[in-house]
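Support request from a user on the community tier.

User writes: "When I paste my structure tokens into the form, the page sometimes reloads and wipes my input. The last time it worked, I copied everything first. Here is what I submitted, just in case something in the input itself triggers the reload:"
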């Protein structure tokens, strides 16, 4: 119990979860912009599907209170985009996360046929960010609080339980993915990447030789499973954490190169940032800040310098 208490409630730096907030916000903005051209087809009265109607808990579905029309879909999408931009800059951070969660959930209720796992991940991350301390660093909330004398020069340590819940969610995501894949013959026998490489509708760039030889197909198939298993389990061992995260990044970059699944791999790589320990996340955030400061000699407005 003492370990569990330290794991969830020992105060930690907030810069890592703030960096994660920024990355997820960028993904949300791009995701919303990708929906704009197809808004009438996906969320209109004359679209390719009708509104699916109520199902399950409807508290986060605005279409339970407003008619499922193109006009209402449009303002909900633009409200969602505004909330994502507000979340990016850390302006009313928690409120922005909750507004983003409700508006995105509403659109997902309207037309679940266009969704992939990345959409589910974005929705879940918004829910968790609504409870987090992600607005305590690199944010306008902090900037205005400092101006009013309500925040210290350096962000305070905060309890990381919301970040821990995000980490547990991501860990379970990878572990369950590996587990369910092993139930299929293609993954267990090392043949899966042969079939995925033949999905021409998803092809981005060809990778000669690799998917034409059995040994390479088995290596990529089983290698993917090993990395996903490691991201669900071995990542919790501190000496292995960074190497496992780097392996995960390489896996997703490889999929991004070969398959055209808009934003999905970038969303997953954004998740891996939050899997760092809060102090490691802080070190990464400070390293990025230092690189940006070189481009802006007068320094950044959200200084968080502190001895590591």
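"...and here is what came back when it finally went through:"
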């Amino acid at each position: 119990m003492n370990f569990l208490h330290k794991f969830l409630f020992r105060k930690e730096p907030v810069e890592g979860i703030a960096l994660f907030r920024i990355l997820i916000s960028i993904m949300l903005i791009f995701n919303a912009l990708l929906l704009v051209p197809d808004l009438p087809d996906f969320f209109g009265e004359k679209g390719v599907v009708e509104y699916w109607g109520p199902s399950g808990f409807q508290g986060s579905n605005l279409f339970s209170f407003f008619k499922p029309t193109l006009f209402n879909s449009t303002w909900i999408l633009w409200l969602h985009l505004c909330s994502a931009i507000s979340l990016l800059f850390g302006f009313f951070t928690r409120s922005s996360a909750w507004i983003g969660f409700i508006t995105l959930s509403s659109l997902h209720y309207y037309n679940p046929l266009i969704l992939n796992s990345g959409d589910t991940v974005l929705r879940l991350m918004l829910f968790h960010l609504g409870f987090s301390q992600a607005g305590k660093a690199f944010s306008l909330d902090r900037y205005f609080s400092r101006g009013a004398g309500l925040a210290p020069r350096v962000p305070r340590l905060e309890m990381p339980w919301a970040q821990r819940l995000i980490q547990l969610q991501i860990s379970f995501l990878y572990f369950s993915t590996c587990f369910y894949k092993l139930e299929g013959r293609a993954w267990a026998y090392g043949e899966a990447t042969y079939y995925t490489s033949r999905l021409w509708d998803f092809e981005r760039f060809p990778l000669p030789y690799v998917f034409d030889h059995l040994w390479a197909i088995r290596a990529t198939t089983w290698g993917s499973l090993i990395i996903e298993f490691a991201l669900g389990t071995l990542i919790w061992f501190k000496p292995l954490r960074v190497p496992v995260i780097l392996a995960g990044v390489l896996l997703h970059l490889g999929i991004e190169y070969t398959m055209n699944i808009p934003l999905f791999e970038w969303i997953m790589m954004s998740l891996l940032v939050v899997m760092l320990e809060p102090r490691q996340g802080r070190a990464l955030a400070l390293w990025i800040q230092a690189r940006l400061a070189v481009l802006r000699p007068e320094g950044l407005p959200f200084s968080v310098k502190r001895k590591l």
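Agent notes: The reload is a front-end session timeout and is unrelated to the input. Confidence is low (pLDDT under 50) at residues 299-308. Residues 246 and 272 are 9 Å apart (CA to CA). Escalated to web team.
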